[in-house]
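Before the break, one more example. Copy the sequence into your notebook; we will annotate it together after we see the structure.
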Amino acid sequence: MENTDLTPCDSIKPFFGRFRTILRRTLFFGSVVIVNILASLWLADLFYRMQFQKAHFPLLAIFIVLNGLLVLGSFHAIFGAFDMLLGRKRSVRISKLAEGKTGPLAKRHAVVIPVYNEDSVRVCARIEAIYRSIEAAGNLDSFDFFILSDTRDLDLWVMEETSWTNLCRRLDAFGRIYYRRRKTNENRKAGNIGDFVRTWGGDYEAMLVLDADSLMDGGDIVTMTRIMEAYPRLGILQTAPKLIRGSSIFTRLQQFAMRLYGPLFIRGLNYWQLSGGSYWGHNALIRVKPFSEFCELPALPGREPFGGRILSHDFVEAALMVSQGWEVWLAWDIEGTYEEAPPTLVDHLIRDRRWCQGNLQHMWLIFARKLPFSVRMHLFMGIMAYLGSPLWFLFLALGTWIAWDRYSSELSQLPFESYAARWFDIDGIQQSIILTAVIFALLFLPKILAVTGAVLTPSIRRSFGGAFRILIGASLETIVSMLLAPCIMVAHSLMVLSIILGRAVGWGNQNRETDGTAWGDAFRFHAPQTILGLVWTAVAINIGYHSKNPGDFTSRYAFALWMTPILLGLLLSAPVSVWTSRSRYGRALLNKKILATPEELNPPTVILLADGATAAVDPALDASIDARRGIVAAVVDPYVNGVHVSLLEQSDLTDAEEALAERCLSEGPTSLSKAELSELLYAAPAMLMMHRAVWLRPAEGIHVTWTQAVESYRRRLDHSPIAEAS
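Here is what the structure looks like once it is written out:
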């Protein structure tokens, strides 16, 4: 069945038929549309009963959109539960193509890990675990590994080189694990991957794209490559990563929720997307040839933030692949796929700012010609993940305005006879309660379905530590999520506003380790939410206070009580952000097995391998010592200097490089700009000349930075066991 063309062979039968695909999508989206129409008509009838005001029209329009998004999310869980009830054998899963297949792989494959200012020891520990896991699966000869560095921190660059060298030496993996750092990081991660594809991609059938925090089981990686080799129409095979290693309350809540509720949504997503899936940027296997041919990203019209380079490249790359006839699948039943999450709410929102800009750029593409329906839906859902927040904020603001107008007008409401009153014989209050109940049912139904399924399934129940811990964890997650939702709503609204105002985002590295958010930082970061909460609370309390017929306490403060979940979330945004950022509270809950995930209670082998990986650490080759860290080590330490120079292109020493090196020697590295230091680090003869100089020249002739670094070797010798014994 091998196909060497750059378009899928028409003679190869699609994995899932067109008629059944259309039937599934019609059933899913038809159900979503029908439920949304019924709820919207019910609200319109309620507004008619109250006598339509001008503000009701935009309120109804926003409700149609927001309720549609709510129904869409809930029905992913509902259809996911239905798919689970069908059983594994009757569910659509492309991974069955690999069942029963053993032996060596037919093609060569690459594992690529883009890094940007990361902890190289931790990155190499994950690579070591994956390497050993694939080796245990018996297919190591079919894989090469590539560390693709876009690191701009020059000290971290040197540390990456030493960590990679130690890793290769300890694993005997020179010629199998490669390291490359780009001089210019054009087009961010997409450009990094593109550079790999253009330079080395032709040697490989597929590449497994990982993030710096990704971890995958070797056996599952081999399974994915078998699937791709068995099915030539497959362009991208995406997995659903699980969150691991969360220490703070915030990350523990995230990974517990994703682990407990996530399978429902993943199965529901797979129910309708099928071969028209999306790519999430990591933990996915990509066929190199069609990716190289069709997935070159165009620059959008205009400047950033809406124009320029596409930030959220992964959705677009999948869209281009599907539009050319290649299939993109979600391998929902691949279990050994993991990633890490930002440790605090603040870090989470900082990352979201970049994603927000990238997803809003997709508005250029959603109406492009020749895009299949599934692609447009993925782009739409990505856009609305952020536009939904300002719409929700506007909905609440309009609701507040209507409540204010109702109480301050002092006019009695003379309702018209509505259809609900005529057909169901209910009053306006009952009609409002029914609509509210339906909305809350849609909101909480996914959690109820997931918790019920987990409690009633013995294997899942045991994996989470028992039914009691599942119920406690789900309750805690629900409460905290309700408190966080208004804070995130305002943050996303401000992100969208800043993008509309033309403020582009930079490219920063992700914080993966922290001991929590400081109180001062929290109040500064969440100041908009806190101030808005104070003002909104005052308005809510004031509504109805001056009414001539205020009634009892509940009637007078009905609106304020109704808005309590929103107002509490805004007022407590800073305290909740601080509390959820604390690792000690997260560890305390883990000790009680609350919010614990199956990967924590029974760690898979690949996680244990990563936790125990030490190949990248060797005192004999170390660029992280305080006295000679990074750049200083690359100049002073003979082993670090040798590794660094060996990775550079050899050339003759120019006069400009020699002058730069002399200035660095006499005035110290801080006297040079970052660009000058980078130029010096790329000059092999200059680095060798500087190394000889710091060891041979008298101390009076070089900067104190170099003399202190040389002296650190003597201090190490003075404190060695041999010196102490003598």
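Confidence is low (pLDDT under 50) at residues 720-726. The first strand starts at residue 109 and ends at 115. Try to locate both features in your own notes.
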